[in-house]
Amino acid sequence: MWDTVQRGVIIFFRICRSLVKLLVLGISRQMFRENNPLTRLILILIACICFGELFIMLLLPYIPQLPELEIAFLDMFLLSLIVIPAVSWTVTRPMNKSLLELAGAIKKVSVREDEMLASLIALARQRDSETGNHIVRTQQYVSLLAHRLQVDGHYVDQLSKQSVAALVKAAPLHDIGKVGIPDRILLKKGHFTEAERTVMKTHTLIGVSVLEAARIDPEGYGDDNVITKAINMAGSHHEKWDGTGYPHSLAGQAIKLEGRIMSVADVYDALVSKRIYKKSWTHEEAIEEIIRGKSISFDPLVVDALIIEQNSFKEIALKYQDS
Ligand SMILES: [Fe+2]
User: Which of 31, 33, 240, 274 has the fewest CB atoms within 10 Å distance of its CB?
Assistant: First the structure.
């Protein structure tokens, strides 16, 4: 008699516990609609425990009297029989499917980005024909400088692995603003007049506006985005450390790091390359000139990186020299 009452009380409490859990489940129904995998997992666990407990409770009168430990193990075993397939079916499988879809979408976006970049780089190269392999060489110089700064622990907050990769990808676009410079100035064989030089300087601002136009959703781009890096580089690669550059006469670290790195790469390349109006300088002369401009025209840390990497600069200049 006492055993029957005890069993009845246990059943009563289990029913109450399950009802409370079902109530929580009902309140959470709205949350379930949000389709958040973590919410879904929690709710599925609660539901499984509720129905599992009900199921075990119904089985209880048919189970012979067992020690408490064995009852606990039986309880866990029966629950796991319900929980594992339920979680696998309702959470793991949809999550795996979503992850595969997400990976596919990221790959598609990456391919589109590469296609757009290739198109912009082709455009930039078209307007830079006079300087031949300038785009190829400066991209490699930028890569050397950025990796050296990264290895030496400088500007760590701006030179993450993703950031450096984006910076190197963006490098060929630094002079894309030349698309807006008239041929009579861009293709002029000889020195510019003051008026022509003023027009030529606008390639920085034109570059920024061209690249800004390529950003469909400016809010959706982070600092590690290739277009963001390209905008920073195009707009600031002619600024000087002492504030005497253009277009905004920015000084020191107010100049974007992308511009400070490209500035050294660009000037080195201009010095060692032959132009219609000047002979090519030797590698050693170019390095000495840039060292003279340390903390005047150039970021001192970037110049230090150049000094360390100068042999690689020389190799790249030789490998990709203009024919
Ligand atoms: Fe430029």
Answer: 33
Distance in Å, CA 23 to ligand 1 centroid: 67
Ranges of H-type helices in 28-128: 29-33, 37-59, 68-87, 93-126
CA of 172 to the centre of ligand 1 (A): 11
Residue 115 placed within a domain: no
User: Residues 293-300: what's their mean pLDDT?
Assistant: 97
Q: Is the pLDDT of residue 311 over 70?
A: yes
Q: Does the global pTM surpass 0.85?
A: no
Same domain, 204 and 307: yes
pLDDT, tens digit, for every residue of 89-113?
Answer: 877 888 888 889 999 988 888 788 7
Whether residues 65 and 142 fall in one domain: no
Residues near ion ligand 1 (CB < 5 Å) are 175
| Cα 55 to averaged position of ligand 1 atoms, centre (Å) | 75
178: containing domain: 127-319
Query: How confident is the model over 184-214, as pLDDT tens digits?
Result: 998 888 888 999 999 999 999 999 999 998 7
Count CB neighbours of 6 within 10 A.
10
- The CATH number of the domain where 167 resides is what? 1.10.3210.10
Measured in Å, residue 182 CA sits from the centre of ligand 1 at 15
Sign of the dihedral defined by the CA atoms of residues 67, 72, 78, 81, in that order: negative
Last residue of a domain, one of 66, 101, 136: 101
- What is the Å distance from ligand 1's center to 310 Cα? 22
26: exposed, middle or buried (Cβ count in 10 Å: 0-12, 13-18, 19+): exposed
